[in-house]
Amino acid sequence: MNLNFKKYPILHFAARSVEKLRLLPLDQLPRLCDELRKYLLNIVSISQGHLASGLGVVEITVALHYLYHTPFDNLIWDTGHQSYPHKILTGRIHRMNSIRKKNGLHAFPCREESEYDTFNVGHSSTSISAGLGMSIAALKEGKNRKTICVIGDGAMTAGLAFEAMNHVGITQSNLLVILNDNKMSISKNVGALHSHLEYLRNVLKNRTNKDKMDCLNEKNIKNNFFSFCSIFSCLGFKYLGPFDGHDIFSLIDVLKQIQNKTGAYLLHLVTKKGKGYLPAELDPIKWHAMPSFKVSIKKIVSYSEVFGSWLCEIAKYDKKLIAITPAMSEGSGLVKFSRLFPNQYFDVAIAEQHAVAFAAGLSISGYNTVVSIYSTFLQRAYDQLIHDIALQKLPVLFAVDRSGIVGNDGQTHQGAFDLAYLRCIPGIVIMTPSDENECRQMLYTGYMYKKGPSVVRYPKGNGIGVLLKAMKTIPLGKSIIKRLGKKIAILNFGSLLNNAFFASHNLNTTLVDMRFVKPLDKEMILTLSAHHKCLITIEEGVISGGAGSAVNEFVMKKKLFLPVLNIGLPDIFIPQGTQKEIRHDYKLDKEGIYNQICDWIN
């Protein structure tokens, strides 16, 4: 996309290279920030992507690239939602309209994409750990390389960030952590750290910038004096702030004073998520990420909405129902529940490990606990799921959203691995609904199951428009024959059932909605094996270790000696693209499944 010189004259010059940016006189930087903000708004409005976070860090981005010697100096953006201005200023401005699209720019910083992206991100709270490693490596090698981590106050709530800060406090590292305090993550921030930051903002708001820089005084550094006793100074950081994160001149001044200092510093910057675009400032949750859209004639309910409505329905008569989410209330469909049943709802912030262990404590105490979590983020709580839930056979229900192909957020967010990493856990029940009504029934089945943990994994997006029926439990481990055919039996696990129907109809096969990955319907497999010449499994997850692997293991154990074709995702990290594009590329759309079967049987 060509950049309009007349509309963006300063940005047109600065975006050629970071070296060009550093040639700008200081008094041109406010205008650059203004043009960068307008360009970002324009490019996201005609394309798609994360908007509000980027609008909030424009001045921070400009100041860092203006002063520091990137890419020699390491600049790490935590999570990466806020990295669009960084991408624009580091040689990628003409490809910004491709962001989050197939074969386009990555949604988050990616080392394969640019030397300015020093660390791949996507999941939150990793920056300080990685930055500390890079900082210590630079010291060991005798390189005068600076390391800067930009982390939001939402990401700072995660245990991983505190583990890293705890380690920083006992090292001789040269590390600058910039706390981008906008009072938000994707959802509104919660917790004691949020309250502490608010306290710092209020207590220190009347202090001058000079007073806030006291700890940079050589005498004070020598005497280990800190200008204010914050949680960060107690962890070994020299705390500076809070400063206005949108005052470019103040930022440049502060960063210049820090730039050549040694030790660990935490610079607290207060910003406005969505800065410069009033709708995004007023509603940063809505404007966090903006998709392209089409006018819909008929509203089809999403799986997340099915979950949220089901939860509200249950809570009306179960006062011991507790719903837990790690900072994803909007995406998981929990906003309505949180308003109607605030005493039965916990947003624990970006703390997946804590969310699951917290659920264990509630479950042991007699509460019917539901953990709503994205597939990709459940990975972060795997030990708690095994050690704290499954080992104790606690009846916690996991509503695993965004399973399978997620789409535009790419490799870091695809829900490809859940079946493989869950299936090996003893005593767990794993359900894979093929439509929104089946999802509703499975949620109820998991809620009623009291012998151990249960999982309902469902995809991102809308259902197929089926009628939602009254709740009833599904017999554990029982599948349903959807179509009778000859010679070939297709065993479908989950949301690709409609695509499997196309192949089943055209090849006259038997089609079974397996519904359960664990316990597996072994009786059905034995029956199908006795009356068919081959089996085909279909799932929207990795083939290695997934539902198809479970069928393979059973077939071999029983010495059934019939061929099995596993259809699913290959042994790679799935790139970005729309769900439709990815299903087409990996032959999981209806034509792709049909062709895979034809190629195999022929």
TrEMBL record:
<dbReference type="InterPro" id="IPR005477">
    <property type="entry name" value="Dxylulose-5-P_synthase"/>
</dbReference>
<dbReference type="InterPro" id="IPR033248">
    <property type="entry name" value="Transketolase_C"/>
</dbReference>
<dbReference type="GO" id="GO:0016114">
    <property type="term" value="P:terpenoid biosynthetic process"/>
</dbReference>
<feature type="binding site">
    <location>
        <position position="352"/>
    </location>
    <ligand>
        <name>thiamine diphosphate</name>
    </ligand>
</feature>
<dbReference type="GO" id="GO:0000287">
    <property type="term" value="F:magnesium ion binding"/>
</dbReference>
<dbReference type="InterPro" id="IPR009014">
    <property type="entry name" value="Transketo_C/PFOR_II"/>
</dbReference>
<dbReference type="Pfam" id="PF02780">
    <property type="entry name" value="Transketolase_C"/>
</dbReference>
<feature type="binding site">
    <location>
        <begin position="122"/>
        <end position="124"/>
    </location>
    <ligand>
        <name>thiamine diphosphate</name>
    </ligand>
</feature>
<keyword id="KW-0479">Metal-binding</keyword>
<feature type="binding site">
    <location>
        <begin position="154"/>
        <end position="155"/>
    </location>
    <ligand>
        <name>thiamine diphosphate</name>
    </ligand>
</feature>
<keyword id="KW-0784">Thiamine biosynthesis</keyword>
<feature type="binding site">
    <location>
        <position position="182"/>
    </location>
    <ligand>
        <name>thiamine diphosphate</name>
    </ligand>
</feature>
<feature type="binding site">
    <location>
        <position position="277"/>
    </location>
    <ligand>
        <name>thiamine diphosphate</name>
    </ligand>
</feature>
<comment type="function">
    <text>Catalyzes the acyloin condensation reaction between C atoms 2 and 3 of pyruvate and glyceraldehyde 3-phosphate to yield 1-deoxy-D-xylulose-5-phosphate (DXP).</text>
</comment>
<comment type="pathway">
    <text>Metabolic intermediate biosynthesis; 1-deoxy-D-xylulose 5-phosphate biosynthesis; 1-deoxy-D-xylulose 5-phosphate from D-glyceraldehyde 3-phosphate and pyruvate: step 1/1.</text>
</comment>
<feature type="domain" description="Transketolase-like pyrimidine-binding">
    <location>
        <begin position="301"/>
        <end position="466"/>
    </location>
</feature>
<feature type="binding site">
    <location>
        <position position="81"/>
    </location>
    <ligand>
        <name>thiamine diphosphate</name>
    </ligand>
</feature>
<keyword id="KW-0808">Transferase</keyword>
<comment type="similarity">
    <text>Belongs to the transketolase family. DXPS subfamily.</text>
</comment>
<dbReference type="GO" id="GO:0005829">
    <property type="term" value="C:cytosol"/>
</dbReference>
<feature type="binding site">
    <location>
        <position position="153"/>
    </location>
    <ligand>
        <name>Mg(2+)</name>
    </ligand>
</feature>
<keyword id="KW-0460">Magnesium</keyword>
<dbReference type="InterPro" id="IPR005475">
    <property type="entry name" value="Transketolase-like_Pyr-bd"/>
</dbReference>
<dbReference type="GO" id="GO:0009228">
    <property type="term" value="P:thiamine biosynthetic process"/>
</dbReference>
<feature type="binding site">
    <location>
        <position position="182"/>
    </location>
    <ligand>
        <name>Mg(2+)</name>
    </ligand>
</feature>
<dbReference type="GO" id="GO:0019288">
    <property type="term" value="P:isopentenyl diphosphate biosynthetic process, methylerythritol 4-phosphate pathway"/>
</dbReference>
<dbReference type="Pfam" id="PF13292">
    <property type="entry name" value="DXP_synthase_N"/>
</dbReference>
<dbReference type="Pfam" id="PF02779">
    <property type="entry name" value="Transket_pyr"/>
</dbReference>
<protein>
    <recommendedName>
        <fullName>1-deoxy-D-xylulose-5-phosphate synthase</fullName>
        <ecNumber>2.2.1.7</ecNumber>
    </recommendedName>
</protein>
<comment type="subunit">
    <text>Homodimer.</text>
</comment>
<dbReference type="GO" id="GO:0030976">
    <property type="term" value="F:thiamine pyrophosphate binding"/>
</dbReference>
<keyword id="KW-0414">Isoprene biosynthesis</keyword>
<dbReference type="InterPro" id="IPR029061">
    <property type="entry name" value="THDP-binding"/>
</dbReference>
<dbReference type="InterPro" id="IPR020826">
    <property type="entry name" value="Transketolase_BS"/>
</dbReference>
<dbReference type="GO" id="GO:0008661">
    <property type="term" value="F:1-deoxy-D-xylulose-5-phosphate synthase activity"/>
</dbReference>
<keyword id="KW-0786">Thiamine pyrophosphate</keyword>
